[in-house]
Amino acid sequence: MKREPFLLREPSYQTWNDVFSNPRPITVETFVTGESIISKEGSFNLAHPNAAAIKDVPPKIRVPVLAHWLRHREFGDYLIDAGLDSSYQKRRRGRCRGILAGFVMGNIFQEKGQDIASRLKDKHVTLKGIFFTHLHFDHIAGAADLPRDASIHYIAGKNEPYLDIQKGILFRSGEWLKGVDPLYEIDCSEGVDMPLLGKSVDIFGDGSLWAVSTPGHSVGHLSFLVNSDKGPVFITGDACFFDRSLENGIGPGKYSGNMEEAQQTLERIVEFARKYPQVKRIYGHEKP
Ligand SMILES: [Zn+2]
């Protein structure tokens, strides 16, 4: 998959207070595209000193797989993450193949019409682009059912790894991003420092949508601030899996590439949430 830099615009503001004082004509609606079973140790750092506070959480957790529809009344319709494609209605392993595919993919539950393509059709959405928080399957699978029209841009964080296993008989992944060319990469280090979240990119240059670098769970992980005229919303992605992650200051667990960095990122999000309680938060795997 070819990668190209996402073209950065001049940022409209330099502080979140200025951003929030100037809400923009953008709205966000979250879809549950299915559910999956994930592990407690994958989603919570159980070595954290506060881990006792979540001892009631069972070892396996059934969670929603989310996608977020953005409508900017000037610039059109976008997604943050793609959730799941419709293949899970027929097969537990979705589009994955190989004799271990069912085992590797675990349990995914999806009802008819929950998949992202059906959701967008229901809403009569003509998509202009998808921003990915990161490229793990439960955030990109839905892209397999979406058009590869040149007018639809696929966008992730810089150096975000994408693992597409196609060799062997044991397991082959779902080719969810097949035909995406190029994948645009947002380089937050070229953005503006927005305390307390750090380097951020003003996507449209009007202060409506900000990509924030939140590495750790994955190398190029992004979170997104939607400066909606219905109130600001922070979409954390898997930088913060659950409300209880934020509440107890416990970073993501073993599903993360770098748990130490993921913990530091989570702590920035906790501080941001304390300073700006007016910002609604949507977590990686919690129904908003
Ligand atoms: Zn996830």
Plain-language structure description:
With 288 residues, this protein is of the alpha/beta class. It has helices at residues 16-20, 40-43, 101-105, 116-122, 137-140, 243-248, 259-275; strands spanning 3-5, 26-39, 60-72, 76-80, 108-109, 127-131, 153-157, 183-186, 192-194, 198-202, 209-213, 222-228, 231-237, 280-283. The model has no long low-confidence stretch (mean pLDDT 96). The two termini are 33 Å apart. It is built from 7 helices and 14 strands. The chain has a single domain (3-283), classed as 4-Layer Sandwich (Metallo-beta-lactamase, Chain A). An 8-stranded mixed sheet has the order 1-8-7-6-4-3-2-5. Zinc ion binds at residues 136, 138-139, 238, 284-285.
State which percent range the strand residues make up: 25-35%
**Number of H- or I-type helical stretches:** 7
Radius of gyration, rounded?
18 Å
Instruction: Please list the strands of the largest sheet in the order they lie side by side.
Output: 1-8-7-6-4-3-2-5
Order of helices and strands: EHEHEEHEHEHEEEEEEEHHE
Anisotropy-based shape: globular
Tell me, what is the CATH class? Alpha Beta
Mean pLDDT, to the nearest integer, reads 96
Query: Which CATH architecture would you pick?
Result: 4-Layer Sandwich
Unreliable spans are none
- Hetero ligands: zinc ion
Query: How many separate domains make up the residues?
Result: 1
* Helix content range: 10-25%
Output the CATH homologous superfamily. Answer: Ribonuclease Z/Hydroxyacylglutathione hydrolase-like
* Termini Cα gap: 33 Å
The largest pleated sheet is described as:
8 strands, mixed
| CATH fold annotation | Metallo-beta-lactamase, Chain A
